[in-house]
Each structure stands twice: as structure tokens, then as C-alpha cells.
Amino acid sequence: MKTLLVVLLAIAAVAMVGCSSGATKGSQTAPAASSAASWIFTKQALDAVTANRKARARLDGAHVYEILKNKEQPSTAVPVLPTVSFKSVATLADALNRGRLPRGTRAVIYDAEHWAQTPADEQRDPASYYRQAAAITHQHGLIFIATPAMDLVNAGAKVADPAASFLSQNIDASAAANADVLDIQAQSLERDPATYRDFVGKAAQQARSANPRVTVLAGLSTNPPGSAVTQAMLVSDITAVAATTAGFWMNIPDLGPDCTDCTRPRPEVAVGALTDRRLAALSTLFTR
Fold first, then answer.
1. Phi and psi of 189, rounded to 5°?
2. Model confidence, pTM
3. Three-class SS of residue 61?
4. How far apart are CA 234 and CA 273, in angstroms?
5. H/E element, 184
6. Non-local CB neighbours of 227 within 8 Å, separated by 6+ positions
7. pLDDT digits over 177-232, tens only?
């Protein structure tokens, strides 16, 4: 029934192109992969980072996708692309078809993960559902951002090596095939920069093989589950993949439905990493 619902919603989307608030068919285009760096932040994370003058300057000239929810207003500290995130294709399609996106929305994220918010059938067949999500989003003239989580490999049964299984299943490649932007959710590996670099490099290669035009980002987190992450780790990660990616999703998660075992938010780690002087040499990601 869920698959049938998605198909019906997709058909409805064709008849309702342009009905989403603030969106017009063909009006939105994603920044090219070779242009300025791109970043993804939640509203809370971006406010915390841009409160620091030096960190705000590091985002100068970048394409900043700001995830907004409820009645949050876009940041005025830096220019942003207002973005809305969805965990299932059905809710994404319903919001688009009914014109329920906030006015001015420029991009949509489909964040499929091995959690209750993403239906089981979507977890088991991410390729099909990322294709559907991209089609619906593009029909409404919006930028489509694909962010499949590594833990999707556990949808059938828990695997011993999620990173290796994720790569072997080419999940990022299938998600990137019709996406404008792909975020490689590698933050669980960020404590080991060499492992992080290896995974991001392989996933990025797969993604670009499927879609040479896709903008590839990599995930970072200030406080993922487990031992504490440091500023130095994030700087090492950023440096390690600077030649591979066009930017990052800087997660500063809070304990809640999206991160049930996260520690307390640590925006100071993100600020410390962004203001680290070693990043000034990464001209492909930072203008100053």
C-alpha cells in the first residue's frame, strides 16, 4: 500500500507542478559541483556558528542550505537557501503536492535512515525511493538533496561492517543518480581521519560515476554517539577530503527523535574547527 501511495502521489505531482509555496517549475538550479563550496546546517546549528565572527567569515561566498522546520525564519547572518528535510517519500510528496512548504523554500532533503521515521520498504529499497523523491522534487522546481544514511544496510539484518556493506551496495551512487546534491553520511567514521578519507573518497567516486554533475558533500558531527569528538578531528577530516568534496553537512545534533543516543550539543567544536587557521589554506572550500 505504501508503494502504491507513493506512485499515486508522484502522478499527482505532475498535475500540480508549481503549486508548492514559493516554487515554480524549472526556477531552481543547484550550484554546480565546480562552483563555491556548499554547506548544510540546521537553523540552530547555523545560528550557533554564525554568532562567531571568524566562523561566519569562513562561510563567505558559500552556498548554505539552512534546514528550517515549523515556523523558523531563514538566517540573516549569511545568505542561505531555505531547505526542508523529510524522512519519507510519502510525507515529502504530500507536502509538495499540497503546497505546504514554507514560502521561499529552495531545496528539499530526503533523509532515509534505519529509523522509525523512514518506512521499512523505503529502507530496503533506497534506490527506488531516492529516484521517486528526486522526480517529485524536480517537478516542483526545487533542488534535491539526497542524504542516505550508512545504517540503511541494517534494514534487513544487522551487518558487521556497515561502511563496507554500504559501499558494496552502491547506495550513494543510486541516491546521487538523480540528485543535485549528495551528502555522504560519514560522520560515524570521523574519529579516524584516514578511515573517513577512504570511505568518503570511495563513496564520492561511486556517486560521480552515477552522476558527474552532482555536488558531493560529506557529513561531520560535533557530538555523535560514542566518545567525544574534538576540534582537531574535524579539522583533520575536512583537510583529508578537501580535494574530494565540495563542502560539508555540519551536524550539531541535540538529543531527540533524530539522535536518541547523542550527547549534549557542542557548537563550540564546530566553531573551533571552522576558525582553525589550517583551513585558510583550503582555497577550494574557503575564500578566507
1. -105, 0
2. 0.89
3. coil
4. 6
5. strand 181-184
6. 191
7. 999 999 999 999 999 999 999 999 999 999 999 999 999 999 999 998 889 999 99
The DSSP string of the chain is -HHHHHHHHHHHHHHTTT-STT--TT---PPPTTSS-EEEEEHHHHHHHHTSHHHHHHTTT-EEEEE--TTPPPPSSS--EEEEEESSHHHHHHHHHTT-SPTT--EEEE---SSTTS-HHHHH-HHHHHHHHHHHHHHTT-EEEE---GGGGGTTS--S-HHHHHHHTTHHHHHHTT-SEEEE--GGGTTSHHHHHHHHHHHHHHHHHH-TTPEEEEEEESS-SSSPP-HHHHHHHHHHTTTT-SEEEEE---SBTTBTT--S--HHHHHHHHT-GGGGG-TTT---
Rg for the chain (alpha carbons), in Å? 18
Cell for 92?
515529502
| Alpha carbons 173 and 165: distance in angstroms, whole number | 13
C-alpha cell belonging to residue 60: 563567505
